Amino acid sequence: MQISRLFAAALFSAAVAAAQQPSSPEPPATALTIYNDNFAVARTTLNLDLHAGINAVETNDVTNQLEPDSVVLRDLGQSNTSVRPSFRILEQNFETAAVTQDSLMRKYEGQTIKFVFGNALGVDGKPAPGTYVEGKIIRAPKQFQDPNLGYQQTQAIIEVNGQLEFAIPGTPFFPDTTEGLLLKPALRWQIESEHAQKVNAELAYITGGMSWEATYNVVAESGGEASEGAEKADFVGWVTIKNLSGAEFPKANIKLMAGDVAKIEPRQRALGMMVMASAENVAVDNAVTQKPFDDFHLYDLHRSVSLADGEIKQVQFLEADGIRVNRSYIYDGEADNLQNGYYYGQVNQNQSFGVGNSNPKVLIVEEIANTESNHLGMPLPAGRLRFYRRDADGQVEFVGESVINHTPAEDTVKVTTGSAFDVKGSRRQTDFFIDQSRRIMEENFEIKLTNQKSEAVNVKVLEHLYRGDNWEIEQKSADYNKLDSHTIEFLVKVPAKGSATVTYKVRYTW
Q1: CATH dotted code for 322-509
Q2: In this predicted structure, which of 45-59, 339-353, 446-460 has the lowest mean pLDDT?
Q3: CATH 2.60.40.290 in the chain, residues?
Q4: Which listed site, 6, 56, 361, 485, has its alpha carbon 20 to 30 Å from 393?
Q5: Rounded CA separation 454/279 (Å)
Q6: Residue, of 275 and 325, whose pLDDT is higher
Q7: Residue 332: beta bridge partners?
């Protein structure tokens, strides 16, 4: 809930008093390792001044999506784990119920406060006579969860002039104090120390509400109509970091973990938080580096950044000029998922299997070798890749996008950017024969490709043989490659302003 101007005024004097206190030292930098799946590991330092006995220790340097059972508080100076710990944690409490208007009304249930009409305040910041009524809070509004209806809220009951009102008569104006109010999430401990000591401790915990993703922009330099084959392009990679954790990090050292890390989702807490996010581009002073970590890859930004709550921050982590991009065309005439009709050890004898509506689209696939010789060679985290091309006037035009998986070095990035406008395909079954006594089945197919481009194109024609496990190509109009146990590929050259046809006959036995 947004805090009203009058509610903020009620806390104003406490804020002034706090501002008059000696300024505290700048908080230490927080180290953040952010994962793809909406969580992060945060690490910061706490200077503990412990006396002998039991100490009450508190910090507000945490997020409101902290997972309490993930908290680790340890003595940084105690590297030898066989030595007895310098202190012992007896109890830990995590409180997230930060003050809201509704929580303050619950605090003052049974008491009489002022309710101001509109936003009328006197010059002293207090309600002027005639601008408010006094009401006793009989029941404050409270949110609860109904198993059938979801989140519901009880109505407030206010006694005004001896009558009960089921509505708040104005903006509540609370007494000038913040005693007992929680303004930020707090982590509190009861710590036992055998003797007085100053401890430089590390606080580490897992928090939700933080994520990152990679995006890539590829700009091909060729002008005019693009043709297949190799062309030059520029390659830029960005990481987009989102902070919806409910906390601000004025100085954060950020690392990014790429890979599919197993994580059990914690039970969700009702935070009632809505955030408006803004975007910011950040110039990079030091190159982002990566290194293998366990079975994943860890990317280090090598710089401190500020990360406000609700902020989206973008950092460039990769730039390569003059990479080679290879374009190819792929035609898969059967758009349905043929594996749904595949029965292990049997043969699908339905004549209409795999001969539904012919798919006319020929896909455009851009292939980029992720190698040092191609000016890359860095493990690329999964993300969205946008493909641009310069036209004859030198302007950059968007020509498609796709999502790439985690791609290790020396592998190839394959991006489907759309379907060709001038290259089309059709596929039809021309014959079908089955002989139950001989346990054979034969079918013939014809695949036709048309090309209205001004140059010839090579199209990879995919055919899926999922009727049975035992098959053999009896006749063919072109050579093919066997890609796997149920897929073959014909490489067909389609002339400019012309067409080409592939035919084949397959026999299944059982």
Answers
A1: 2.60.40.290
A2: 339-353
A3: 322-509
A4: 361
A5: 43
A6: 325
A7: 462
